[in-house]
Design a protein that fits this description.
Elements lengths: L8 E9 L4 E10 L7 E6 L12 E9 L2 E10 L10 E9 L13 E2 L6 E6 L16 E9 L9 E5 L1 H9 L7 E5 L6 E6 L11 E11 L5 E4 L4 E3 L7 E4 L8 E3 L3 E8 L5 E11 L10 E4 L4 E4 L6 E4 L7 E4 L3 E8 L5 E11 L2 H4 L6 E3 L5 E4 L6 E4 L7 E4 L3 E9 L2 E11 L11 E4 L4 E3 L7 E4 L8 E3 L3 E8 L5 E11 L9 E4 L4 E4 L6 E4 L7 E4 L3 E8 L5 E11 L10 E4 L4 E4 L8 E4 L7 E4 L3 E9 L2 E12 L10 E3 L5 E4 L6 E4 L7 E4 L3 E8 L4 E10 L9 E2 L18 E9 L5 E5 L9 E2 L2 E2 L3 E11 L5 E10 L2
Parallel strand pairs: 14-19, 20-25, 26-31, 32-37, 38-43, 44-49, 50-55, 56-62
Antiparallel strand pairs: 1-2, 2-13, 3-5, 4-5, 4-12, 5-11, 6-10, 6-13, 7-12, 8-9, 8-11, 15-17, 16-18, 18-19, 21-23, 22-24, 24-25, 27-29, 28-30, 30-31, 33-35, 34-36, 36-37, 39-41, 40-42, 42-43, 45-47, 46-48, 48-49, 51-53, 52-54, 54-55, 57-58, 57-61, 59-60, 61-62
């Protein structure tokens, strides 16, 4: 019994830290156990109950022992307990080495009867090295089994066999993974693959398994401090499936702003769980106050004091003192640092009041267009405003001519300003009153002459605009003072519409009366009549022109279709050949009636495939008509070239299509009743009896009348050219063959096509030299007797 102790491991560990702070540990292990630590055995089916737990070989073998076929398989198990169940295998390489043990019969790789391709399969139940046998061999799982290719030399090593998938299965299913079973894929004798086992005396030849895997881990960082008012974001990484923090939170990050111990547990997509913790201490921050935002008058100054006792001061002015003097508008800020390294920032807005009379300006006196307005702005920053009308806003909107003034005050004094405004004369334009015109007329719109620019509703810029469609038309004009005015006119263009109705249809013999709308002054129909209505009874286009009270003219038209009852024909009775079909068409064709065939179908045509009487009903709103036709099915002419047959060499055959047909056409384009052939093949003929066509085909197979004999034989019983014989086909019969010596002596004869001469005479080896032969035979399909002669040379 071998001791069950951990394998000797050569362990390399590589830690990879990803930028997202979640850490994956990559580990490589090398397993190459020796005879004490190793666990392997071979299984022999010829010794089904004998244990072979100590062997120098790790083999898969299908061979014969003393003529009895047998099989050998091998078991091998590595200790994978060092790899966590949740690990992801990123590389697994199995190396098997030839044993190099010499013996009376060397145990080498062999593919004597076929490829020695082998398999490595996962063992799913436990087994003991010192008592496992062929009859107690453990069960296996073929999922992700590994194929070892055929060997290319008798002593080939197989380094770095890729077993990543089967090893991953073992890690994920540790209770049902107990090593590798090694066997020949096709277990037919004289195929072998053999390597060194863990019991081999040379350690470097033992089976070796190199595995690289990764497992998850996290790092929240070292214990640290933060200043009061600051926050610290704890991030274990973003690639995990689940997060659980000390307070029950399941977010991927945690924000810290108080003293305490913080921990997190994460789970990745493989189910790997990792935890880490960190202690955070909160330090006091400085308290500073520069005061509220304030105002000072132009020329004054203010001392800003950040307080004493701090390690450093940084003002945005560049000063590093605890106080600064300011005398201009701006935002002033300072950052101070205490003995804990914590900082605080405060800022204050200082605004400088100008003297009231310095910046107050309503602008120069000006003039503006009638209808517009001007915004007078006294400026911001004053505490009191009073305009000429008593209003107290900082702005005043003026829209008439006049004198405008404002009085202002601020803590630094008071001031006032005045402005005179004038207005340009009003622009008057007139496009006229809204009006109506007849369709086809136009109106000339003119806002007047002498303006700097014109802009019409369509973007055009001419003085005049011609209008001929109903709608609103407007124009904007600009004068030399850049003042503008606009006007709009609505025009309606009238087109009278008598509306005499929609296109319609009537049956022959009927009529229809078309009425034009009432209220028109005049009516005029296509025939010159002037009544408000018109009665029609013929196919054609009818129109009416009307004039309204404004003298505007309009018209309408309508088409009248006079429909006649259908009158149809299917034609004369007809016929077609068996296997063909015929389409029935209704004459005359048209779309002014609906069709109903005898089977209820309503298509414009009808497909006939069998003999019978066929009819169709044509109908429209004015009547109906029916017609019928008889369709006969003509039988095909009978033609028969005979059954398929054979044709011997140098023979011929006459094919006869039969008499009485109008036309014949053979596959060689000949057109006679018969066709003479002298070679095998497929032949067809097409016949026509005046009404229908028919075709028949005959297949002619060739007969093989040739024989093959060797010209040299070497009857030394090495399996090559040991016999003299005739190689014949199944078409040959009545066969005989005689072999003579050069002096005409009969040496061997037979009447059996399968007999062979072994180079003997009267049971003893005949002398080397040249011998002569003659054979006679008949061939299927040929009356003649074939005779062949030749010679053969015998060499031993």
């Amino acid at each position: 019994m071998k001791r069950e102790i951990p394998y000797l491991l050569i362990l390399f560990i590589i830690i990879i830290i990803f930028p997202v702070r979640n850490i994956f540990s990559q580990t490589t292990i090398i397993l190459q156990p020796d005879s004490i630590e190793g666990k392997d055995a071979i299984l022999r089916n010829l010794e089904p109950n004998i244990n072979h737990g100590k062997s120098n070989y790790y083999m898969a073998n299908a061979w014969t022992w003393e003529g009895v076929p047998g099989l050998i398989r091998s078991l091998l198990e590595f200790d994978l307990s060092v790899i966590p169940d949740s690990a992801e295998i990123i590389e697994a390489k199995l190396s098997l080495y030839y044993h190099h043990i010499q013996g009376s019969i060397p145990q080498t790789h062999s593919s004597l009867s076929g490829p020695n391709i082998s398999l490595i399969q996962r063992i799913t139940i436990e087994w003991e090295e010192d008592n496992v046998t062929w009859n107690t061999q453990p069960q296996i799982d073929t999922t992700n089994q590994v194929v070892i290719p055929q060997s290319t030399s008798p002593t080939q090593d197989y380094p770095n066999i890729n077993v990543i998938a089967i090893v991953q299965d073992m890690i994920e299913n540790p209770l049902s993974s107990h090593g590798f079973l090694f066997r020949i894929k096709t277990e037919e004798h004289y195929r072998r693959m053999v390597f060194a086992s863990t019991d081999h005396p040379v350690d470097s030849l033992h089976p070796k398994l190199v595995i690289t895997f990764i497992t998850c881990s996290i790092n929240l960082g070292n214990d640290t401090t933060i200043c009061f008012g600051d926050e610290l974001e704890l991030t274990p990484g973003s690639n995990f499936m689940n997060y659980l923090w000390h307070n029950g939170s399941t977010d991927s990050i945690f924000i810290v702003d108080t003293t305490g111990l913080y921990w997190v547990e994460v789970t990745d997509s493989l189910g790997c769980i990792a935890t880490d913790s960190i202690f955070i201490e909160l330090l006091p921050s400085p308290e500073i106050n520069l005061g509220n935002d304030t105002l000072i008058c132009l020329g004054d100054s203010l001392i800003l004091n950040a307080g004493g006792g701090y390690l450093s001061y940084i003002w945005n002015t560049g000063s590093n003192d605890s106080t600064i003097v300011v005398d201009s508008t701006g935002i002033y800020c300072v950052e101070v640092e205490n003995e804990f390294g914590c900082t605080s920032i405060d800022s204050i807005l200082i605004e400088i009041y100008p003297f009231a009379w310095e910046d107050l300006d309503l602008g120069s006196d000006t003039i503006f267009c009638f209808g517009e307005s001007i915004v007078l702005n006294a400026g911001s920053g004053y505490t009191y405003y009073q305009w000429q009308d008593g209003s107290s806003d900082s702005i005043f909107i003026a829209d008439t001519a006049g004198i405008y003034y404002v009085y202002v005050e601020n803590p630094c004094g008071s001031g006032s300003d005045t402005i005179v405004l004038d207005v340009y004369p009003v622009i008057n334009i007139d496009l006229g009153n809204d009006t109506a015109l007849c369709s086809g007329e136009s109106a000339l719109l003119d806002p007047g002459f002498g303006y700097l620019s014109y802009l019409w509703q369509d973007g055009s810029s001419n003085q005049f605009f011609y209008a001929n469609q109903t709608g609103a038309y407007w124009v904007q004009v600009t004068d030399e003072n850049l003042c503008y005015a606009y006007d709009t006119i609505n025009l309606e263009f009238i087109l009278p519409d008598p509306n005499i109705g929609n296109d319609t249809a009537v049956c022959s013999g009927d009529s229809v009366t078309f009425y034009a709308d009432d209220g028109f002054v005049n009516y005029l129909w296509q025939d010159g009549s002037v009544l408000p209505f018109f009665t029609a009874d013929s196919t054609g286009m009818f129109w009416c022109e009307v004039t309204d009270t404004m003298g505007c003219v309009g018209n309408d038209s309508v088409f009248l279709d006079v429909i006649f009852p259908p009158l149809i024909s299917l034609g004369n009775d007809t016929s077609f050949c068996v296997g063909d079909s015929i389409w029935l068409n209704v004459l005359p064709s048209g779309n002014n009636y609906d069709l109903t065939w005898q089977d209820g179908s309503t298509d414009s045509v009808f497909l006939v495939t069998q003999q019978g009487n066929y009819w169709v009903l044509a109908s429209n709103q004015c009547g109906s008509d029916v017609d019928s036709v008889f369709v006969n099915v003509q039988q095909l002419p009978f033609v028969f070239l005979g059954n398929d047959t054979i044709l011997a060499m140098n023979d011929y055959l006459i094919l006869d299509a039969g008499s009485g047909f109008e036309n014949y056409l053979w596959n060689d384009d000949s057109y006679y009743q018969t066709l003479t052939i002298d070679e095998a093949g497929s032949y067809w003929v097409n016949v026509f009896d005046g009404m229908c066509y028919n075709t028949d085909t005959i297949n002619i197979e060739p007969v093989d009348c040739e024989i093959l004999v060797p010209i040299v034989i070497t009857p030394n019983w090495d399996g090559d050219n040991d016999y003299f014989f005739a190689n014949t086909s199944e078409d040959i019969y009545d066969f005989s063959m005689i072999v003579f010596s050069r002096w005409g002596e009969k040496i061997w004869e037979t009447e059996n096509q399968d007999d062979k001469w072994d180079g003997t005479k009267n049971g003893k080896p005949a002398a080397d030299g040249t011998y002569y032969w003659i054979t006679k035979y008949k061939c299927l399909g040929s009356p003649q007797k074939f005779i062949r002669r030749g010679s053969v040379t015998m060499l031993r």
